[in-house]
Design a protein that fits this description.
The chain is α/β, with parallel strands linked by helices and 467 residues long. Helix content is 25%, strand content 19%. It is built from twelve helices and 16 strands. The strands form four sheets. It has an eight-stranded mixed beta sheet with strand order 4-3-6-1-8-11-2-12, sandwiched between helices. The longest helix has 31 residues. The radius of gyration is 21 Å and the shape is globular. It starts with 5 loop residues before the first strand and ends in a 6-residue tail after the last helix.
């Protein structure tokens, strides 16, 4: 009899491809080790560069169909209030229907602990994904609620309670449990021990907060870096020919009102502040790497590692000063490019996969790996075969993304984006060589071959018309 694998699905908020295994200076020994045991995807792209919408696309395997699908409330609007239908609400619902015991911990969909309530409201009892979980768990610790923990500082306060009069970073000499992700790792370890004794296939999904703002992490992770040696953004200026409305003035970042400097498209961060902020982000990534390592070590200790699919997924990227932006919410590489690592039984190790894949492809891929039926109507395609055959010629290297009145298509060597702005249509084309970021908009309306090629691709990916 074919034994089905267990599933450990780890979601990490705002984790761009800033890991040691991607060539970054960031110290991530645990995720680097996992990448050596499986496949590391260098060209994984999200469909929407904001948390709730990106997660909705990944969870459902579908492209956005309307403007509201680009918001953080996408799951709430499309899934939370529905009766249970024949079509599963998410990939976790499909696993549950096929015999898996499903447990969610932390931020898997948009809401920080999986329950619907406002930032400054008491926790509700209404699940964001009502049919996906046998259990939905979270330990808010001294912060009291999921949202308070999400925006929490080491003293138990949070951005809301301090009326945004907070810095965008904090270095506190506390143990891992002094911030919420340490509590999440401990809860996941305890649940793994329990699940391993159930005698039933399980799916444990764990959502970590960091490196999402505020960039807060225990001091020992800050101490891994010498701030003066941290690199500056490789592309600090707005690319030549880029339309300013394609970028933004880092409003989410500037909402932390005690920041050292205000930044905008007209005012770059100083080199010293850029290094401090990158230091803070790097510390957060090293902190969450350590939490992931604890869970992976427990999986091995319990003897479950060889029969467990492990997926580590970043819900989108984040500009760390590239193009004068600090944040996500653009249709640029820094915002759309995110971490994806997959380790699965009976697949090759240490695969550095450079094929273009999308977050919507994860759902059908996981079903393939679990030998389960793939529901009809998904927009994603299984790339399970790429785990063993990364050069498979039948795979189409193409990814669509949507935001900011724009639709963007990524193919090998190029990104083409079409925006609507004040009733007009604007186009941008970028060619990628060694640099991972956009340098210059090279769109030429007289280059009819390229114009027609990308216009056709955009039309194929246009699932809705912007209002």
């Amino acid at each position: 009899m074919d034994v089905k694998p267990n599933v450990l699905f780890i979601c990490i908020d705002d984790l761009r491809q800033e890991l040691g295994c991607y060539g970054s200076e960031v110290k991530t020994p645990n995720l680097d080790s996992l990448a050596r045991e499986g496949s590391l995807f260098f060209h994984h792209y999200v469909q929407v560069p904001t948390s709730g919408a990106s997660r909705s696309c990944m969870l459902t395997g579908k492209l956005p169909r309307k403007v509201s699908d680009l918001s953080n409330e996408a799951c709430k609007q499309n899934l939370s209030n529905l009766a249970e239908l024949e079509h599963p609400e998410t990939l976790f619902h499909q696993l549950r229907r096929n015999g898996y015991y499903t447990v969610g911990i932390g931020k898997i969909s948009h809401y920080a602990d999986g329950y619907l309530y406002g930032y400054e409201k008491p926790k509700s009892t209404k699940l964001e994904l009502p049919y996906s979980w046998d259990e939905m768990l979270f330990n808010p610790g001294k912060w009291g609620t999921g949202w308070n923990a999400f925006f929490g500082y080491s003293d138990g306060t949070n951005r809301q309670s301090r009326n945004k009069q907070v810095p965008p970073y904090e270095c506190a000499d506390v143990p891992d449990e002094g911030y919420p992700d340490g509590l999440t790792a401990n809860l996941a370890i305890d649940k793994l021990k329990e699940l391993s004794q159930k005698g039933k296939n399980f799916c444990l999904a764990v959502g970590f907060f960091k490196p999402h703002l505020p960039f807060v992490a225990p001091k020992k992770y800050w101490d891994l870096y010498e701030e003066n040696a941290i690199s500056l953004p490789s592309v600090p200026q707005i690319p030549k020919g880029t339309h300013r409305f394609a970028l933004h003035n880092s409003n989410e970042f500037n909402g932390y009102l005690k920041g050292d400097e205000k930044v905008s498209l007209d005012q770059s961060a100083s080199d010293a502040y850029s290094r401090k902020l990158r230091h803070a982000y790097f510390a957060c990534v090293s902190y969450v790497d350590a939490q992931v390592g604890k869970i992976l070590n427990e999986l091995k200790k319990l003897g479950q590692a060889d029969n467990t699919i492990v997926i580590v997924w970043g819900d989108h990227g984040w500009h760390l000063g590239e193009h004068r932006v600090w944040g996500k919410h653009t249709l640029m590489e820094a915002s759309l490019h995110s971490t994806l690592i997959i380790k699965a039984p009976k697949t090759k190790k240490n695969v550095k996969n450079r094929r273009i894949v999308s977050s919507i492809d994860i759902y059908p891929t996981l079903m393939d790996l679990c030998n389960l039926p793939i529901p009809e109507g998904l927009d994603g395609h299984s790339f399970a075969d790429l785990l063993n055959h990364p050069n498979n010629s039948s795979w189409t290297d193409l990814a669509y993304s949507y935001f900011n009145n724009g639709i963007s298509v990524r193919v090998p060597k190029y990104r083409f984006t079409s925006y609507k702005y004040k009733g007009e249509e604007f186009k941008e084309l970028y060619r990628f060589r060694k640099n991972r970021f956009e340098i210059q908009n090279i769109f030429d309306p007289k280059d009819y071959k390229k114009v027609n090629r990308f216009a056709d691709l955009v039309e194929k990916g246009r699932t809705f018309i912007y209002e």
